[in-house]
Amino acid sequence: MESGDLKIAWARQYMPVLSSIRKRFVEEKPFSGMTIGMALHVEAKTAVLVETLAAGGAEVHITGCNPLSTQDDVATALDTREGIHSYARRGASVEEYYAAIDRVLDARPAITIDDGMDLIFRIHTERRDVLDSVIGGCEETTTGIHRLRAMAQEGALRFPVVAVNDTPMKHFFDNVHGTGESSLASIMITTNILIAGKRFVVAGYGYCGRGLAQKARSLGARVIVTEVDPRRALQAHMDGFEVMTMDDATHLGDIFVTTTGNTSILTERHFPKMKDGAILANAGHFNVEIDVDWLAAHADSTVHRDGVDTYVLDGKAVHVLAEGRLVNLATPKGMGHPVEVMDLSFAVQALSAEFIAKHGRELAPGVHDVPSAIDEGVARLKLDALGLSIDRLTPDQETYMSSWTIGT
């Protein structure tokens, strides 16, 4: 087997939930006659999702959602599968990146699956000729949902999109455990530095930041959290982390990781105040949280290594990982979220795509929640795969929980 096939086979054996869904898809063919267009991180776990959709009867066209997150051998392996067409390439220029998205859209997909909303953005701007073909879409990540809700609020979103990112199964496992473990793993394997004892600054205390802070503390880091939301800041304080502004944290941190999904988190006012050897990484979707352009324009010198760009400012080195892109995927050895975590998220994704295939024409344009039965069903499939049993409510308990007349 080629390396891409080996990677996909490895991932598949640790994705029992998606395997269970695939068996049903093979029998029922919910996507028969449909084309699905995807812009996701093209790596082994994504490949298992793509194979699952193709097994359900779909013709799948896929490209990347980040120029540095594609594993070329996996993309090549996918392109050999019947009914699957892959256009992703690691290191694509901006022009090549959008050309690949256009190739996906040339297939006129009935369903879109996005991680960051670039497909939907392209459809609503440069490729409005595709609008009439689309029944609906699914969005995988927080940044994409923010963009979609802004579109919907302005009345610009022309078809229904399921917010896969917003389910408990995504938040509790993908965001917390997936982002936390994979980001730290990429930082450690890229730099070979010790986490224990370091001042570890986490920008943002959403689900991703929360997981990263907890995992870093478990490795012995002294964690500082910066926030703009007073409730999340208070939560971080109650969880036992130091809370302060980024301006105050700048001269303390040894490692900085941004998880906000917003722009301009580490900027020109922060870099000159950092320690010599400070390490900067981003765990948000787009490369806008760290102002790498300012560093490149003002550094006395720059040294490029695999996955690390070192900028020297007034004799002090600042190390940026993965060009400020997603650190868990864009470093040379970044593997993304752990397999078992993505089994859950991609199971929700597959079932949400099936929901769109069956009910998309009935839904109004806008952002829609994942039906709770899908989210709960994925959890039950995972429990079954683990051999775990849980209690069920008795009829009396169900009555009690749904009644307003039963009091003290």
UniProtKB/TrEMBL annotation:
Keywords associated with the record: Cytoplasm, Hydrolase, NAD, One-carbon metabolism
Start and end residues of each S-adenosyl-L-homocysteine hydrolase NAD binding domain: 175-334
Pathway given in the UniProt record: Amino-acid biosynthesis; S-adenosyl-L-methionine biosynthesis
Gene Ontology molecular function: any one: adenosylhomocysteinase activity
Highest taxon of the lineage: Archaea
SUPFAM superfamilies, alphabetized: Formate/glycerate dehydrogenase catalytic domain-like, NAD(P)-binding Rossmann-fold domains
Keyword Hydrolase belongs to the record: yes
Subcellular location: Cytoplasm
Binding site for substrate: D115, E140, K170, D174
Leading EC class: hydrolase
Function: Catalyzes the hydrolysis of S-inosyl-L-homocysteine (SIH) to L-homocysteine (Hcy) and inosine. Likely functions in a S-adenosyl-L-methionine (SAM) recycling pathway from S-adenosyl-L-homocysteine (SAH) produced from SAM-dependent methylation reactions. Can also catalyze the reverse reaction in vitro, i.e. the synthesis of SIH from Hcy and inosine.
Keyword presence, Hydrolase: yes
Known EC number: 3.13.1.9
PANTHER family for the chain: ADENOSYLHOMOCYSTEINASE
Reaction equation(s) it catalyzes: S-inosyl-L-homocysteine + H2O = L-homocysteine + inosine
GO BP: one-carbon metabolic process; S-adenosylmethionine biosynthetic process; S-adenosylmethionine cycle
Co-factor requirement: NAD(+)
InterPro entries referenced in this protein's UniProt entry, alphabetically: Adenosylhomocyst_ase-like_sf, Adenosylhomocysteinase-like, Ado_hCys_hydrolase_NAD-bd, NAD(P)-bd_dom_sf, S-Ado-L-homoCys_hydrolase_CS
Parts forming coiled coils: none
Family as reported in the entry's similarity comment: Belongs to the adenosylhomocysteinase family.
Entry GO terms, CC: cytosol
Annotated protein name in UniProt: S-inosyl-L-homocysteine hydrolase
CC cofactor note: Binds 1 NAD(+) per subunit.
Miscellaneous field: SAH is a product of SAM methyltransferases and is known to be a feedback inhibitor of these enzymes. As a result of this inhibition, organisms have evolved efficient enzymes to metabolize SAH via different pathways. The pathway found in methanogens differs from the canonical pathway, it uses the deamination of S-adenosyl-L-homocysteine to form S-inosyl-L-homocysteine for the regeneration of SAM from S-adenosyl-L-homocysteine.
Residues where NAD(+) binds: 141-143, 175, 204-211, 227, 262, 283-285, 328, 337
